[in-house]
Amino acid sequence: MSDRAAMAKARRLVVKAGSSSLTTPEGTIDANRIDALVDVLAARRANGTEIVFVSSGAIAAGLGPLGLTRRPRDLATQQAAASVGQGMLFARYTASFARYGLTVGQVLLTADDMMRRSHHRNAQRTLAQLLALGVLPIVNENDTVATDEIRFGDNDRLAALVAHLTRADALVLLSDVDALYTGDPRKPGARRIEDVHGPDDLRDVELGGSGRVGTGGMVTKVEAARIAGIPVVLTNAASAARALAGEPVGTLFHPARSRRMSTEDLWLAHATTGQGRVMLDPGAVDAVVRHHKSLLPAGVTGVSGEFAAGDPVDLCDPGGGVVARGLVNYDAFEIPDLMGRSTRWLARELGPEYEREIIHRDHLVVLEGGL
């Protein structure tokens, strides 16, 4: 089955709409656009497909009521606008989907929720139960509490992570442009790219920002497609119905034909941030990256940062490049005394509780740069 056909046959779809797909030229929420998009999603839902909808637009929805003419730049006002707008946006969706007898459920997430393993699992259970109950989940970043340091980036990465959480079959990213182009599509010479199989297909692409009231650009969408690991179509809201039907619209990102990452590997690779660094000697790099072994104290040459046992940390090669990430078994201050030692020696000299790995292979993922 082709990846376009997989889009048409998908049993579970994640659809993400950016702010630009939901707003007027002035940046306020457009009820007609929302209804048109809901018409498309409800029709696909009526055909038996489970839909998870990732929606931007909370900040945009709050601009008008607050008397703002443009998206605020400071974080506090963005959070205030989101606080006002989120309820209005969800109420609009509730009314629009109710036209088709569909119940919707609101799920607000931050990147911090995805970084904390317990929160990550709770989000996964909640989404699974909503789908089991026949509810259409509407997911958004919780802009009222998110900070600049822990933002997803226009919900594109959030949509990719939600696709993994729900084990979706395909992902549709709706933007303010109809496809990925080699340059600004408003300028002469920009060429539309119909298919992306890998980095070589992006060699001539100038990835710049776009969107009137959103925060993301093509960079976040390409990154989301890479993370998703399933067929991803990038197009505009006007082409949503055709994209969901598997027609040749937009840009199709073909997934790499490799093993789909486990939920924990995905969480480690894309939803966490290393809280510190552990430096490895060449032998340890080879063991971890090529042979998928646990990281033992004998292969550690240095440590930096402040972290506690159970935190995610980055593993670095002798040149400082990050090659893997894992959940560490020791506090940062303990590791210098363990470096270069065998676990047998440590158990004999320090006690049996030290006869364990720095990071066990079951809680370690090799990152793309380390492959």
UniProtKB/TrEMBL annotation:
Q: Which Gene3D superfamilies does this UniProt record tie to the protein? A: Acetylglutamate kinase-like (3.40.1160.10), PUA domain (2.30.130.10)
Q: What is its main location?
A: cytoplasm
Against SUPFAM superfamilies, the record matches this protein to:
Carbamate kinase-like, PUA domain-like
Q: Which family does it belong to?
A: Belongs to the glutamate 5-kinase family.
Q: What is the lineage of its organism?
A: Bacteria, Bacillati, Actinomycetota, Actinomycetes, Streptosporangiales
HAMAP family from the entry?
ProB
PROSITE patterns (UniProt xref): GLUTAMATE_5_KINASE, PUA
Which species is listed as the source?
Actinomadura meridiana
EC number per UniProt? 2.7.2.11
- Name of the protein this chain belongs to: Glutamate 5-kinase
Q: Name one Pfam family in it.
A: PUA
Q: Which domain of life is it from?
A: Bacteria
Binding site residues for substrate? 56, 143, 155
